[in-house]
Specification:
The protein is an alpha+beta fold and about 120 residues long. The protein has a single domain (about 5-120), classed as Endonuclease, Chain A (3-Layer(aba) Sandwich), CATH 3.40.960.10. It has five helices and four strands. It has helices spanning about 5-15, 55-60, 80-95, 105, 110-120, and strands at about 25, 35-40, 65-70, 95-100. Helix 1 crosses helix 5 (about 110-120). The chain starts with 5 loop residues before the first helix and ends with a helix.
């Protein structure tokens, strides 16, 4: 059974607040993977408004955002597990732009403003 983590729900909420239309727990038909947060090409509602280089890059490929909690890393390290690395490689191979949100980076952010800035940077 698939379920979103609290961390994943926080990331999704920030994406919606900055104008991205994304889908949680998206099943990719080509790979069989479930993507934590899927943003289709041109998912940003602001992609046509401001002169931002991020909007052109985010609109050209679908985006797979993986919200990586401790189970995605080797025990006691910040090194991604083999299955996490393999999933990233497979998704990139079929054309996704892959973005990882490690739990320790998200946890270090102080409030909504920092979270929004962090996600905008990741999506550039």
């Amino acid at each position: 059974m698939l379920r979103s983590s609290k961390l994943q729900k926080e990331v999704m909420s920030v994406l919606l607040s900055i104008g991205f239309e994304c889908e949680e727990e998206h099943q990719d038909p080509r790979t069989g993977y479930t993507i934590d947060i899927y943003c289709p090409p041109s998912s940003s509602s602001s992609s046509s408004s401001s002169s931002s280089s991020s909007s052109s890059s985010s609109s050209s490929s679908p985006v797979a955002i993986e919200v990586d909690g401790p189970s995605h890393f080797l025990h006691g390290t910040r090194e991604a597990s083999g299955s996490t690395v393999l999933k990233r490689r497979h998704l990139e191979a079929v054309g996704y732009r892959f973005i990882s949100i490690p739990y320790w980076e998200w946890d270090a952010l102080q409030g909504a403003e920092e979270q929004e800035k962090f996600m905008r940077e990741k999506l550039k």
